[in-house]
Amino acid sequence: MYLLDTNTVIDFLNAKLPIAGKNFLTSIEPCISVISQIELLASSKINPIEKINLEAFIEMATIYSHINEEIVAKTILIRLQHKTKLPDAIIAATALVHKLTIVTRNI
């Protein structure tokens, strides 16, 4: 299973992915972190149509919303080892703890 990063969802919904990426994402069950859910809906720049599309995507996605002690510990480790923003570190830790492959354009 795969955990989609926020930027992947945005690129997918804005049709900015290459055709292979689009085909891949339409062939898997969408899973996101609660952090991505927050990031996707917390922008004041979202127009009404984009908001409807985002909400529809989120509704059909599996959302990993529980941040347990193991995710906290992995997040701390990621932040100590790499210069990673907190939301990205939580998303990465969620993928690691749940043994999911993260799909992102972040390096």
Can you describe this structure?
- The protein has one domain (2-103): 5'-nuclease (Rossmann fold, 3-Layer(aba) Sandwich).
- With 107 residues, it is mainly α.
- The chain is 58% helix and 11% strand.
- It has helices at 6-13, 19-26, 34-41, 48-60, 69-81, 86-97, and strands spanning 2-4, 31-33, 62-64, 101-103.
- The model has no long low-confidence stretch (mean pLDDT 95).
Give a quick set of tags describing it.
mainly alpha, Rossmann fold, two-stranded parallel sheet, 6 helices
Helix/strand layout:
Elements: E1 2-4, H1 6-13, H2 19-26, E2 31-33, H3 34-41, H4 48-60, E3 62-64, H5 69-81, H6 86-97, E4 101-103
Parallel strand pairs: 1-4, 2-3
Q: How would the global form be characterised?
A: globular
Please tell me how large the radius of gyration is.
14 Å
Mean of the pLDDT scores?
A: 95
Low-confidence stretches: none
Number of strands: 4
* Side-by-side strand order of the widest sheet: 1-4
